[in-house]
Amino acid sequence: MRSPHQGAALLMAMLVAALVAVVAVALAADQQRWLADVAHRRDQVQAQSLALAGIQWARQIVREDARAGSLDHLGEPWSLSLPATPIANGTIEGRIEDAQGRLNLNALARDDAAANIDRARLARLFAGKGLAPALLDAIGDWIDPDAVPRANGAEDAAYASATSASLPANAPLVRPAEISAVRGVGGTAYAAVAPFVTALPAIAPLNVNTAAPEVLIAALPDLRGDAVAVLLADRARAPYTSVSNFRSRLPMGVALADEAGLGVTSNYFIVTVTSRQGDAIAQARALLQREARQAPVVLWQTLE
After folding, report:
1. How far is CA 127 from the centre of its chain?
2. What's the CATH number where 226 sits?
3. Most buried in the list 14, 102, 178, 260, measured by CB within 10 Å?
4. pLDDT digits (tens, 9 = 90+) for 146-161
5. Domain of 236?
6. pTM of the predicted model, to two decimals?
7. Is residue 275 part of a domain?
């Protein structure tokens, strides 16, 4: 007959065995989580490295384009997007856009004849997107270095009295998304114009060979209705070789009052590269500046 001591020992052994099993399961689960975290971090680092490598790929593409000629248009290799392309453990995709195919918000800080033309174009773009052109005064005050508010703008005093108690930058925009912080603009308004505006560090002509329809409409007040499709079809058949050539080929009834601020070549390009490795996704964006046939300079770069 089994003694009470033997029964207690057997019960203790069973409890110890159960405890060991629980600990083993917990350790195994922790190890699996650790391995999954390591794998995700590895994929994240690889995805980021590939996205950054894509920026260097874009620099080379833009440099080679300069060697092929000074004319920049949508029929060139740089304008062809790289679709999601399978690579080991993921995909990579990218695109290069002409920043001079957009309207430069930094022009709002200037006060000269050329700036007035740029401002009129931006006003038409904002109005076309259902935004009040008066917002341009607020953006101009955010950029310009003085403390004198414009008619519909705001300077330090107005910002300091707000709940956020922020102050205007009083410096040129680096990236156009910065106007989301401007009084009265916000993220929703910025999103409406985001594909059509840029922030360039210097005066640069609008490239009529690459500008989107919305930008062309803002640049040419007479351009509307079927004339837009006619112009785009004509441009697709043959890019404009000069601003004079652009003027001579405008659809009937469309006039170009002033050639100022227009061009057919570009020196600034926006690059977006998205890479996926496993479940990790990374996106790199950059603004490139090209000078002659030299390797383009990266003016700014983000990695998410």
Report:
1. 22
2. 1.10.40.60
3. 102
4. 888 888 888 877 777 7
5. 106-194+206-261
6. 0.85
7. yes
